[in-house]
Design brief:
The structure holds two protein chains of two kinds. Chain A is mostly helical. Chain A contains one helix and no strands. The relative contact order of chain A is 0.09. The longest helix of chain B is centred in the C-terminal third of the chain and has 44 residues, at 237-280. Chain B starts with a helix and ends in an 8-residue tail after the last helix. The mean pLDDT of chain B is 89. The chains are: A mainly alpha, B mainly alpha. The A-B interface holds A 1, 3-4, 6-8, 10-11, 14-15, 18-19, 22-23, 25-26, 29-30, 32-33, 36, 39 and B 20, 35-36, 38-39, 42-43, 46, 140, 143, 146-147, 150-151, 154-155, 157-158, 253, 257, 260-261, 263-264, 267-268, 270-271, 274-275, 278.
Chain lengths: 39, 288
């Protein structure tokens, strides 16, 4: 059972880690775009 | 479309939770391997999703390359239609050579579906859009392929007694992962204007590894389990049901992730374009 739980947890860890990089990059670019718009 | 995203996100989360419940509770326990076999419900759908994303990357890369010249674009359209027709005819003419349990109708359908995807991408994505689609599907495909490479050894350790073996299925999957990682590295660190073209060419050749990975367990003797669908494999109908539910849930999830990544890339290009325009303008607003 341990291997099963580790495999499922690892799957979601990989997906969440990737999604968090996407979200972080999106919010940084959005801020950058807003600043460019103000200029 | 922006309003649809959170709703689809919520529905996908519910669907993924349901699929997880099916995999952990509803699916029957495998007699020889026990509960560790349930890793299969994440491992196999992730592999299928990665293959699908790499196939879309392949089509988008071809489209990006051929669209640079209108004549090549027209010829490529004709070639794709001819290949689809040849696949349909060839599947029935050479049905005696097909592996066991592979029906000519499934080969013909695959040919038609691939051609259909080609023309759909061509219709709904601009030249720049196909480039962004190729990048998006490669990146998300690598994430799913990483899941395959992590969950595989976690299943192998208790079942085979080893984490890894250099047999053709495992090695070709690792090579596939490395090809697409190199594709992403090329796109990330090359500053040449020709980067999308080079990356598209790499993706076209890299995609040739996908059929090798998929069919390796059909044509070679490997330690990896034989196919569960087609190729002489068999699976309990209840297990198949859970497997397909999980695949559908992962497909919905992959679609949403690709959508987010696509929007991110568009925004990135908008920011770069605006910065380039701003650099051309003097403080007074006049062009330098």
């Amino acid at each position: 059972m341990t291997y099963l739980y580790i495999a499922y947890a690892a799957t979601w860890l990989i997906h969440v880690a990737y999604l968090s990089t996407v979200v972080r990059r999106y919010s940084r670019l959005k801020k950058e775009m807003d600043q460019l718009g103000k200029k | 479309m922006k309003k649809a995203f959170p709703i689809l996100g919520l529905l996908t989360a519910v669907f993924l939770s349901y699929a997880l419940y099916q995999a952990l509770v509803v699916a029957p326990q495998e007699q020889t391997m026990g509960d560790v076999q349930r890793i299969f419900y994440y491992h196999v759908p992730s592999a299928w999703t990665a293959f699908l994303l790499f196939a879309i990357n392949f089509l988008a890369s071809i489209l990006y390359l051929v669209r640079r010249n209108p004549r090549t674009d027209r010829v490529a359209g004709g070639v794709v239609m001819a290949l689809a027709a040849l696949t349909c005819v060839g599947a029935y003419v050479f049905k005696g050579y097909l592996p066991k349990d592979v029906y000519p109708s499934s080969v013909a359908t695959t040919g038609i579906v691939i051609a259909g995807f080609y023309f759909l991408i061509r219709k709904y994505f601009s030249e720049q859009g196909t480039d962004i689609l190729a990048l998006t599907t490669a990146e998300v495909g690598v994430v799913f392929c990483t899941v395959v490479l992590v969950t595989g050894p976690l299943w192998a350790r208790p079942v085979w007694g080893i984490w890894w073996t250099w047999d053709i299925r495992l090695t070709s999957t690792l090579v596939l992962w490395l090809i697409y990682v190199s594709y992403l590295v090329l796109r990330r660190f090359s500053s040449s204007g020709e980067t999308p073209v080079l990356a598209a060419a790499l993706a076209v050749f890299g995609a040739l590894d996908v059929p090798l990975v998929y069919f390796s367990i059909w044509f070679f003797r490997t330690q990896h389990p034989q196919p569960v669908i087609g190729g002489g494999g068999s699976i309990d109908p209840r297990m198949l049901h859970v497997l397909l539910i999980n695949w559908l849930a992962f497909l919905c999830f992959a679609f949403l992730v690709c959508w987010s990544r696509y929007r991110l890339e568009r925004l990135q290009r908008d920011v770069e374009e605006t910065q380039a325009l701003e650099a051309l303008l003097e403080p007074g607003g006049r062009v330098r």
